[in-house]
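note to self: dont lose this again. the chain is below, predicted strucutre after it. 298 aa total, dont forget to put it in the shared folder this time
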Amino acid sequence: MTVQTPQVDYDDFTKGQKIHSPHLILANEDVVVAQLEEAGYVEDKTFAGLPIHLKILWGLFYFCLSLASLYFFMVAVKVIGESFSLLLGCEAKAAFEFAHNPMAGLIVGVLATAILHSSGTVTSITVALVGAKGMTVRQGVPIIMGANIGTCITCIMVAFAQVGKRDQFERAMAAATVHDMYNIWSVLILFPVELLFHPLELVSLAMAGGKTEGFFKSPVDVVVNPFSDLIIKSDRTMIEKVSTGAVKCQDAKFLRDGMFYNQVVVDKSMSSTTAGAICASIGFCMLVFSLVSLVHML
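---
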């Protein structure tokens, strides 16, 4: 006896939406499962027949691997930032010479932060230049705004790791741009206001005499720095001094610690630019490896 399977109109349940749409209303579980199977998604039943204690052990194992992948991802971002700080070196001041135009200053802040993966470095250099009168407060404000946009590049890089699967990439990019939209809309609103009335500049000048003893040490840096310092540790204070002209470039030592410290500082058999390029390559390889591992673990 042959059982006839009733034909189901998927549009009755999904309102014409595709299965990869993040707005899909899961009105009928059977229909959604059928659509997933048609799209090539197969439920992983590797651990279906295992005892509960083995499932728990495997779960803990993958959880630990996920934490390790996340840790190495943070180390990779730190190494890349330190490496580009080393590569920037004597050219730090030149990178901000276009700040006379507010729009150019905004773009410079975005690009510099995207390259360095550190809005703190861009902000520190900008503050140092303003303090040394190499740049006015009015010129520095657009750069700081640009740094707030450029700091969102890392999450977009993570989202692009899912580019091979359309539905996952759509959701990953949607999540990655949440922070971006907040910063971008803040700049879109405040940037024209700053150009017309300069409220941030006026408030900054009014608060210039204030002092604070506040101090906060990031718990992430406490965990990440011991490992990243073994690879590379740049002297960002020296970069700020070179940017302001307090120290000549030929007398500056941009590397404080790391695997190439002896070659760059002691033996001087390698330039800081070469060391920065090698460490940046190591950081990018570590970044890709950690992202791929994290995706597979999840």
